[in-house]
Records
---
Amino acid sequence: MIDAALRDGTASRHSMFELFARRLSGGRRFGVVAGTGRLLGLLREFRFDDAELKYLADHHVVSRETLTYLENYRFTGSITGYREGELYFPGSPILTVEGTFADAVILETLALSVLNHDSAVATAASRMSIAAGERPLAEMGARRAAERSAVAAARAAYIAGFGATSNLEAGRTWGIPTMGTAAHSWTLLHDTEEDAFRAQIAALGHDTTLLVDTYDIEKGVETAIRVAGPQLGGVRIDSGDLAIVAAEVRAQLDALGATGTKITVTSDLDEYAIAALAAYPVDSYGVGTSVVTGSGYPTAGMVYKLVARQDANGGWIAVAKKAQDKGSQGGLKTAFRRLDRGIAYEELVEIADGFERSATPADYPDARALQVPLVVRGEIDTAHEGPQGVAAAREHHLRVREELPVRALALSKSDPAIPTVFADAGA
Amino acid sequence: MIDAALRDGTASRHSMFELFARRLSGGRRFGVVAGTGRLLGLLREFRFDDAELKYLADHHVVSRETLTYLENYRFTGSITGYREGELYFPGSPILTVEGTFADAVILETLALSVLNHDSAVATAASRMSIAAGERPLAEMGARRAAERSAVAAARAAYIAGFGATSNLEAGRTWGIPTMGTAAHSWTLLHDTEEDAFRAQIAALGHDTTLLVDTYDIEKGVETAIRVAGPQLGGVRIDSGDLAIVAAEVRAQLDALGATGTKITVTSDLDEYAIAALAAYPVDSYGVGTSVVTGSGYPTAGMVYKLVARQDANGGWIAVAKKAQDKGSQGGLKTAFRRLDRGIAYEELVEIADGFERSATPADYPDARALQVPLVVRGEIDTAHEGPQGVAAAREHHLRVREELPVRALALSKSDPAIPTVFADAGA
């Protein structure tokens, strides 16, 4: 497309793309924006290197003119968007990317890849975090996601309310608290379960968590307390009917005097399983597969659409795809979340007449403005990047989640918690 | 674990880990191994750099002794496994990793991340490829997978029978044929649909594929043929009821004399949608979301378990986890696919008494041996890496898929196509 657009001159038309979701996957009641800080970091490095250009040239993918364009590529446009950690609803203008057509269209795959993945994980993670209530949640799913996605997933889960990750690379890159766990191979490595427990306590002290289900849970718990004493930090259970087993293990621990020893469970948990365990004596959850794969919805289904552009005379016109099932809404959008006594009741999206935003927060005193500048004429706002961006996103998420109406917290499939209302500024 | 194992001396115990799947996700009838070549490439670079070691030291994650171990880490063990592209069934010993406990356990997350993701994609892709029959399939899902996973997904889809990808990085890295497509933004960028089509033809010639559903499909097809003439290469439809629309568009194209113009469809296809379109005039499919996310099963659910190790006296013993729902089968395994007149009827897994394989292909003249050496005492077999590894894996997959019984080709949920039979060599 860039090749053909450079040829016919349309590549330089000033354009505005919008990244949004037509619907919320899986009948979710809200979505969580995640990946923004990661996207900005990737945008900072977004260049075409010699090996890449050589491949495009050798395989005649694009013309020489396009190769020169790519060689010099540097995003000099602007991006406005929802803060990372913010909630979103169908039609929320999550990102608005402005620049020449070529400069902005080339970011489509990158922006969608990052936000679709990270938001899918964050949305699932937020539901799990709501289901877990005050009990700590740890992300332990690295092995069930591709090796780099796993790091991004740990980051998204933390933003959406998880407290820690077993992914050390996520700890190093994004400043997320990390935790570890002993695997069954640790027990199997030793000649007896008791040897394994003794070695773990010698290395990590009595505050460690022993995995007690390699052979027989009841014997495992008995051995654990015999070896560690009643001051043992915790036991982990990774198989069986967790509700029943947790109750049995709690009773056994209490009978052995280990009333302070905590119970962690970890077997194929998702938000529904976590909710079902609320009434049972579980102290913390470790979640793997379901969080890193978006609990059944591994992509958020966001799209990136041209919504406005210059015409041949330099005028500014809104554009939209007309397909009934996959249409889009043209024009520059300004978004507000309207609140009644602090509780959200509407996602208001005002569509501007032309290139300039026509609505301001002052127009809606009951509303919170949702968009912030992320990139201004090529300058990336560093506040959203790196560990500080992650910390800010988590704080923002936990704060704005409090604005959700109670019905938004249920796990069953439903309509979005609040409606999205489009308002035409010209009307 | 490594920290504690270095402390109590068990880190150096010779160990054997097995990577396998307890079941096939989603009632699939077979699984497809993918990611092996990628794993070997990552293993070649698997080191701990200064920044990583500094993080582990600064955060007191491991002891000084362990830091030294990690600093010098280099895998010097051996890996035997199924060829990439091979089919697998529950309990198939997909990889067997031999080394000291520390050397082998440290690869757990990497091996599982790569194989779980890539095999999930390849398994879904193979089903789509079977459903598509002779019609070409292109992978176009980069925007619905995290940015690096997307490249791995394109690779896995190609191994499992897709013919091309829109992911240029996958083309560059893995030698996969690439293709491109015009988006709706291309049409919307231009003042009229006709302008967009003329510009595309000027850049790419008459053999290109025009996207005809931005405004009105019937008018789009009429404009496309008026502009390009009846020698137009193809049209793409990305919305609506594809079966009905394809039939209408075919009739319209034929009436306009464009009998050779092909129809590509691309809207939310999965293996079921592809199968349902078999009787309609569609020439090729572009698949996005469903293939890169494993069509509902984004991870293959493989695990990495210690199956044998030295004991304190240097003897060799099989070990296994006993949990009823998540048990494992100890011991070194040798795997064969038994064939009757070229059709598979059994996955035979022979369990050795000790450290040496006891079964050889000569023991089962009707069988194909499934395991090949991938790494021998630290030396990686380069035949499996890079583009040559991908080409070999694809060829292998398409060949061994012919061995499947007819019932394996149905898409509905079922038991595995062939049973896995464990045989005890000592029995």
---
Amino acid sequence: MGGECCRDVVCEGCPVLLVLDERRRFLFRVERGRVQGSDRGVVRHDDLVGLRYGSWVRLSSGALALVLQPRLVDYMERGLRRRSQVIYPKDHGLILMLLDLKPGARVLEIGVGSGYTTIVLAQAVGATGRVYSYEVRSDMLETARKNLETVGLLDRVELKHRDARLGVDEEGLDAAVVDMPDPWAVLPVLHRALRPGAGAVFFLPAVNQVSRLLSAMDLRGGWAETRVYEVLLREYEPRGDALRPKTTMIAHTGYLVYARRVEERPAQVGDRNRG
Amino acid sequence: MGGECCRDVVCEGCPVLLVLDERRRFLFRVERGRVQGSDRGVVRHDDLVGLRYGSWVRLSSGALALVLQPRLVDYMERGLRRRSQVIYPKDHGLILMLLDLKPGARVLEIGVGSGYTTIVLAQAVGATGRVYSYEVRSDMLETARKNLETVGLLDRVELKHRDARLGVDEEGLDAAVVDMPDPWAVLPVLHRALRPGAGAVFFLPAVNQVSRLLSAMDLRGGWAETRVYEVLLREYEPRGDALRPKTTMIAHTGYLVYARRVEERPAQVGDRNRG
Amino acid sequence: MGGECCRDVVCEGCPVLLVLDERRRFLFRVERGRVQGSDRGVVRHDDLVGLRYGSWVRLSSGALALVLQPRLVDYMERGLRRRSQVIYPKDHGLILMLLDLKPGARVLEIGVGSGYTTIVLAQAVGATGRVYSYEVRSDMLETARKNLETVGLLDRVELKHRDARLGVDEEGLDAAVVDMPDPWAVLPVLHRALRPGAGAVFFLPAVNQVSRLLSAMDLRGGWAETRVYEVLLREYEPRGDALRPKTTMIAHTGYLVYARRVEERPAQVGDRNRG
Amino acid sequence: MGGECCRDVVCEGCPVLLVLDERRRFLFRVERGRVQGSDRGVVRHDDLVGLRYGSWVRLSSGALALVLQPRLVDYMERGLRRRSQVIYPKDHGLILMLLDLKPGARVLEIGVGSGYTTIVLAQAVGATGRVYSYEVRSDMLETARKNLETVGLLDRVELKHRDARLGVDEEGLDAAVVDMPDPWAVLPVLHRALRPGAGAVFFLPAVNQVSRLLSAMDLRGGWAETRVYEVLLREYEPRGDALRPKTTMIAHTGYLVYARRVEERPAQVGDRNRG
């Protein structure tokens, strides 16, 4: 009945997602001597040590709670600080697919916000990859740093308190995620930083921004395979006998614009687009 | 102007996505002496060797085509064989997020079909991870094997021509994806194969299947954190001056049911659910 | 500067929708001597009399408010009592189209609830049409009656405190709307009440209900042209310079099942469906 | 076994929707001596005369077909001529609700196209209402006229071959529907033609058009209660035992902008919007 710490067994210092019910969910790191409270009774951290994940613990009230390993999406739901609008897992999933992210990849991030996307990128590129994250606001950057520490992925990320519009340090990068209000301002910087053929995803809340970005890419040239997406996630009540979508949903987070950094298209005989 | 083969520069044997326009897209591996045809002219593979990805090549007609590294989503769009309904990237992205897949993970797949999901899992777990894929139909398995070879990920996958309902060989796995018409039949097998707390995603086209699976999980016990999702992907025409959603869309592929394998919930005083 | 009372000009007894801003909206009937309050100041009903609809009135605070004719959708948003889950305008619109409702039509309604759908049907059939509405709960029926009075459409509706499963009084009806948890129980009653070829719409929150209704119609026969719909309404922030969908939306109200009452299908040589 | 012609019983000259199966659907008017063909056999119109709607007729091949009254939505699906992109019933339904259309209403239509919306409006306003429809293209107008004749609603509509941007003849109208690429050009005309408080719906395919219209209304003033909607209609396979959404759907027709014609908003102390 052994097992690896934090993977199979709860040891001191391991993160735990404690689930009483749909709404009573607690995410914390186990510390000897501490107590996790709730309006349904308490549990001593000491009583969690040695438990296997996936097992049940009884609170002081007798109520049962489930002991789980937190996933990134659990952290994002309730274990992290949030100082800004964040990108959601529904969008993160598509970003991973569009950018074709692999372990070992080197990724640029412009606009870190609370660091949710940073975390997702850091997990996907693995210990052999690297994320270079630029953010102009120091308070955001600090929040992102704490969140990355919380999930244990800070060592793969270089957080830079810099305005990426003025340039970035890296070259030959495999992918980029841009989450800022005026992404057209970083197109030249992106073009220099990405390796030829690499993709970038731009996250934009309003359609006017999408229009303007598309027009800017068109005008500048050097971008191809442009796509604009919107991901709608419907969640259903998980009841076998009365299955139905939840009544409300997040109807909008933002649009995802994907494009690949390519060489300027040469002129072509009879070319109407660029003479 | 150097660069790594197949990453920066097209060498013999490298895969190429050749893009003339939205519909004229060709995905192939470069072989000396071969020619890629199209109704807009041809290009000799020899002329591609040495080109940087992201650059343009002129076809015999004078038309220009873009030379790109194919991503998994490009392969899935036109570079792979398809013998079955497949899961789409929009769903793959969410699956990666729900299962919290990391480099190094060991994943079970039941129902391989054409191997599209296998490929996505294999890329996400990296060279240090492993995918164990069970499929009852040998023709499907053969298609999946060829597709895995095409994308160069076969070495991370163990394809097994076996009925998973009768059991699987692995234990302590980190995650599972199940794509079969009667997933309730593998619930006990999954429970044994997954490490405690690990998650599984079930892909199901019809709501009746979702209902039945939810009821079966409820009855059996040992599953928690159940969620039911549907991902809708809207794509927009990428025109800055006339931005609008594409007229038609894939309105349905399937429902995703997520659940975590946990211990049987102990009885509780005053418990209405399990006396 | 004349005009018709309650259409162009506010007279005593006319309904008014008073709009200060997006959230401060008041719907009432004008009564001499009364005052409409708000946290932004008050307006005396006497000051509204004689105003043209579409004009502005100044509150005691100096703030401006718009004086409008309430539409049915305005009433449904804030001018009516609600004792139950209601069907929304997005669904009402499709119901009108599916049932091909015309002025003069005679419509059956089973399951009145708060009477929102009754109101929509009553307006569509006009003064020459008629709505026959059955409801088992007397409290609901009372709410519906008050709501119909509020919008001034009670005279076109016959509210019946009766269990429609036991039969209805009418025959040869042009259409039916059924909003009850077990609509399969009224299929024979509907078949007798509708004229041949007439359509019925069933409103159902859960997919299991839809499945069961479809199976029941299939088994019984006498129904054709069956369709199942779901209407998703996305609303955008009405800002020209930052156009984007509202963040949250009503993701689910219910499914609409449409079917036409036809004759039992005769047996056919080689008929697999009904031997 | 009597009944009213064209309502209950098929008489000469009555319209019939003949349904063999999901795809074999024919919409025609019954004429003595004619024959309706299909790849599954034929039926003589003479054999239809006297049949009740909702009953079955046997084709020459022995196959059965259903005899139904066509609804407007059936006409729009296959019984009308189409020279342009049309508005769909999913949008028509919401338009009826937003405009609060009642029997007797007088409605303005700018941009007639193939007349689909004209037909819907004409049915909703009834014999006592009136639709005034402006269209600059004479070929469109001719198509609309034929379509209105086909459904028997031409007598309620005044088709005008005129550029509405230069003005319309009517005043005090109850509602307007505008389907043209540059609706901002008719805002002054609309303002004069609509009675105070009346609503208008603008149908626009691209978001840029929506942005521009919103900005124009904002700038001009005289419009309030602005709303922007998009209706998504999901259709399900109508099978009780394998219920699932249809694989593809119409993902986009257009955006609906609703606004009410009001008086110019007076200046207000401390008013930031209009000084």
